[in-house]
Design brief:
The structure is a single chain. With 238 residues, the chain is an alpha/beta fold. The chain folds into two domains: 1-97, Ribonuclease Inhibitor (Leucine-rich repeat, LRR (right-handed beta-alpha superhelix), Alpha-Beta Horseshoe), CATH 3.80.10; 110-237, Ribonuclease Inhibitor (Leucine-rich repeat, LRR (right-handed beta-alpha superhelix), Alpha-Beta Horseshoe). 16% of the residues lie in helices and 13% in strands. A nine-stranded parallel sheet has the order 1-2-3-4-5-6-8-10-11. Strands 7-9 form a two-stranded parallel sheet. It starts with a helix and ends with a helix. It comes from Horornis vulcanius. One of its GO terms (cellular component) is cytoplasm. InterPro entries: Leu-rich_rpt, Leu-rich_rpt_typical-subtyp, LRR_dom_sf, LRR_domain-containing.
Length: 238
């Protein structure tokens, strides 16, 4: 990709606040973007070959949306956590094993997609984020869901296609969690906390493709309580 093409993209971005450059084989974050730190609201660099996000990412203080799906990121810089206006972060299909320690400082974050990475647990940093709506951690290597999940503020948590065999009972204490996706994991029925059925806000529980038959789940005493919420929600959206 030539300099003139990049220049044209930069000029457009200056006017629109959107910089989108996908599928161009970029191996690094375009340095020239730092001229637009106060202009940009959206950066999309998906489908490239970027291995590192430079510390200068922390200077885009008005950024609301950042997408780096399908790159080669193995880590994220702490500076990313300075983006106080960031609402949407898409990092699907990278090689991330963990999140920066200060990730909980992304106080405006609403949507976080980390599908197809190499996470081994639900990051504890997510519990500090008060405005989270959707968290997608599908297709990782998560084996257990820790107690800190009880503080998660998300409305939807997607844990499909992991290796989960244990879930903390605290998940039923999530104050806003309505949708919990656990399809294609390694759960025995005895390892699914029954309090999810009886004492949670969850009104959509997706657990197909685990080590038990759905029929067995429906036979549990507390399943009726869950069905009441499920039906009430369906009526609301009907």
């Amino acid at each position: 990709m030539g300099n003139s093409a990049l220049k044209a993209h930069l000029e457009t971005a200056q006017k629109t606040g959107v910089f989108q450059l996908t599928g161009k084989g970029l191996t690094e974050f375009p340095e020239d973007l730092q001229k637009l730190t106060s202009n940009l609201r959206t950066i999309d660099l998906s489908n490239n070959k970027i291995e590192l996000l430079p510390p200068l990412i922390g200077k885009f203080s008005f950024l609301k949306s950042l997408a780096l799906n399908n790159n080669k990121l193995t880590a994220l810089p702490e500076e990313l956590c300075k983006l106080k206006k960031l609402e949407t972060l898409h990092l699907n299909a990278n090689h991330l094993r963990q999140l920066p320690a200060a990730f909980g400082q992304l106080s405006a974050l609403k949507t976080l997609s980390l599908s197809g990475n190499q996470l081994r647990t639900v990051p504890t940093q997510l519990s500090g984020l008060r405005h989270l709506d959707v968290v997608d951690l599908s297709k990782n290597q998560i084996q257990n869901v820790p107690d800190t999940v009880g503080e998660l503020q998300a409305i939807e948590l997607n844990l499909n296609q992991n290796q989960i065999s244990q879930i903390s009972v605290q998940i039923s204490h999530c104050p806003r969690l309505k949708v919990l996706r656990l399809e294609e994991n390694c759960l025995e029925l005895s390892m699914l906390p029954q309090s999810i059925l009886s004492d949670s806000q969850i009104s959509l529980l997706a657990v197909e493709g685990n080590l038990f038959e759905i029929k067995k789940l429906r036979e549990l005493d507390r399943y009726d309580k869950y069905m009441e919420r499920f039906t009430a929600t369906k009526k609301k959206f009907a």
